[in-house]
Amino acid sequence: MSSRRPDGSGPIAPAVAVLLIAVLLGALVGTWPPFVAVESGSMTPGVERGDLVVVTATDRAPWGDLATAADADAPTRLGGPGDVVVYAVPGVGGRPIFHRLAFPVDAGEDWTDRADPELLAADCAELATCPAPYDGYVTRGDANELYDQSAGIAPVVPEAWIAGKALFAVPNLGWVRVGVDAAAARYGGVATGVVLVGLAGLAGGLGALVLGRLRRGRRR
């Protein structure tokens, strides 16, 4: 009677490995989830639709404080100067917005005086977001023709709305996240989760089968 050692590459191993990597990455960058999937082309060419972007907390060392495109010593992030951030407007719903910080503004400021006139649809008197109601930032998608605050996408963005800033992008890997979100929206989170666990188990089983055959082949 022969005995076999337990094989650590069972059906749940891939799912556990992915979860462990995500948890470790989240601990490193200080945000959860530690990445976002880009669903629009508003940040091309630096970030394309379907890319997966790793984000960090805004105050996380060693990446420093927030920097805007107008800062003289702004670092280059994803194809341009200044930080690209993830922010959400409270009470509006919808997806978080993934755009670049153009420049900071102070409460009560006519921020159009410092803006690029080609990125404005109107002057301060005609914009609901001007003068700035509070301290914050003017933002824009690199590929968009107007500032978010001129296009009606968002009001001036205070730092409290910013969930994280981008570090780097992995091309095309975000399509997985986009697909999962689309499936969850259509079929529900529970059904999608069951399918994903099943697929992870299937992948783990196939991987264990392949590894087992390779090991047996080496022993011969």
UniProtKB/TrEMBL annotation:
Record protein name field: Peptidase S26 domain-containing protein
GO molecular function, one term: serine-type endopeptidase activity
Compartments it resides in: Membrane
Cellular component terms (Gene Ontology): membrane
Domain of life: Archaea
Residues annotated as transmembrane: 12-35, 187-211
Keyword Membrane found: yes
Primary residence: membrane
Organism: Halorubrum coriense DSM 10284
BP GO terms, sorted: signal peptide processing
Entry keywords, A to Z: Membrane, Transmembrane, Transmembrane helix
